[in-house]
Amino acid sequence: MIVTWNQQYRQAVIDLWNEQAVKDGYKELTEETFERIFTANPYFDRDNTFVLLDQNEVKGFACGCTGDDLPLGEVAGYITCIILADRFQTDQNYQGMLDVLEYRFQQLGKKQGEVLFFNPMLLPWYIPGTPKHEHNNAPGVPIESKLYAFLLEAGYVERAKECAMYLKLDGFIIPEDVRTKELKASAEGYTVELFDTEKHNGVKEMLNGFNNLLWQREIGQCTAEGVPVVIAAYKGKVIGFAGPVIRQDNGRGYFAGIGVLPEHEGHGLGSLLFFKLCEAFRSIGTDYMSLYTGSTNPAIRIYEKAGFTTVKQFSVMRREFV
Predict the structure, then answer these.
(1) What residue ranges in 72-189 does DSSP mark as E strands?
(2) How many whole angstroms separate alpha carbon 267 and alpha carbon 188?
């Protein structure tokens, strides 16, 4: 039997998560982190959160979310997770949980289901081969998981594979050819450095040029409040960014993204921004960095040049409802 969310199931769902989801690399949940990720999240919807019961015992948990202010939010619902106990990982049970999620999406007028990195319910996961170094968000469904195989059979189309990449920062240095590239860019009127309100202007215009609401909100707030952000500027006007530069309590370097306005591409600014970002993280004692990027994204070569390696792959998936 599948029922909608009730707080009475919380501890049993946490126990299920810590038994099953961790097998796919997700970080364990506590009452505090469960509340932060799920029930206290502004996008939490008890009618889009489900529990599979067998003889009144919790054997499955599924959660989705919607929001018109999210990317694709007017047409899409996001699948956050579907977790099943060992003996209940059947196509029938996966389909049952998927059906109730999709039905709720359609009730709310959504036309498609998405497994996508814009999901605001962030699921942290451990980076393989490390002492529990972690990334703050899963950008899709792990390709080695049973859920991935099921979603493919259920009609979800893989739109991209996201490569999760990792670098320990203790030995990071900027290569000489990148330093040379910086000198060339400087001769062309470009600088790449930390944002300074007295030297730089045009942050809002730059962010509007990317048409990315998350960047507009986060980078705009950081530059306004003095949180370090690496920027590229042309004669003082900001035309690109990488950051913010924030060391998390777990030792990871957190950053929201990197971008250069199209009209200023071709000067090597993307790679300069990224290497300067790594340098800025190392300078504040950051232990490691992790990021994800599409497997076909040319920027992957920049990350590999900096020493990053791919440690895990996730799938971005979509199904359009009839």
Answers:
(1) 76-84, 112-115, 125-126, 134-135, 141-142, 157-168
(2) 9
Longest Cα–Cα distance in the chain: 72
Q: What is the pLDDT of residues 200-239, one digit of tens each?
A: 999 999 999 998 888 999 999 999 999 999 999 999 999 9
d(CA 317, CA 114): 6
> What does the alpha-carbon distance between residue 261 and residue 45 come to, in Å, rounded to a whole number?
37
Note the pLDDT tens digit of each residue in 45-59: 999 999 999 999 999
Question: What per-residue confidence (pLDDT) applies to 299?
Answer: 84
For residues 60-81, average pLDDT: 96
CA distance 296 to 300: 8
Tell me the per-residue pLDDT of 115-173, one tens digit each, with 9 for 90 and over. Answer: 999 999 999 999 999 999 999 999 999 999 999 999 999 999 999 999 999 999 998 99
Residues 6+ apart with CB under 8 A from 64: 45, 48, 49, 77, 78, 79, 80, 101, 104, 105, 113
Q: What digits encode the pLDDT tens for the residues 302-316?
A: 899 999 999 999 999
Cis peptide before 244 (omega within 30 of 0): yes
Residue (of 117, 142, 139) closest to 128 by Cα position: 142
DSSP 28-91: P--HHHHIIIIITSTT--GGGEEEEEETTEEEEEEEEE--TTSTTTTTEEEEEEEEE-GGG--H
> Is there a contact between 195 and 225 (Cβ–Cβ < 8 Å)?
no
Q: What's the pTM value of the predicted model, to 2 decimals? A: 0.86
Residue matched to tokens 């950008």: 139
